[in-house]
Write a structure and sequence with these properties.
Distance between the termini: 41 Å
Helix content: 55-70%
Number of helices: 6
Number of strands: 0
Strand content: under 5%
Order of helices and strands: HHHHHH
Structural class: mainly alpha
Largest sheet: none
Length: 92
């Protein structure tokens, strides 16, 4: 499990593969001494997500691309100072 996570799989992917909850995956990884990524997104993915969002992609579409939730994408983008759009695509 740790090797797959270090190779880039998310806790969501591992949870599905092992048939367990993502929180259980995270517990196993932490117990094995694995350093966790920020809510399933690497720094590179967050940078890519910012570019995609600024080019017009929706949070949901970006979330699908990186196999995380839209909330995670939104949180990471806001941490990077990316201005959010409203539900009609207008700047807030």
């Amino acid at each position: 499990m740790a090797l797959a996570y270090r190779a880039g799989q998310t806790v969501y992917q591992l949870a599905e593969a092992y048939g367990i909850n993502r929180h259980t995956v995270a517990q196993h990884l932490r117990a094995s001494g694995v350093r966790m990524r920020l809510d399933g997104m690497t720094t590179e993915q967050i940078e890519q997500a910012a570019v995609l969002y600024e080019s017009g992609w929706s949070l949901a579409r970006i979330a699908d691309r990186f196999d995380v939730t839209a909330k995670t994408v939104r949180t990471r983008l806001r941490e990077q100072g990316v201005p959010m759009r409203d539900s009609h695509g207008r700047p807030r």
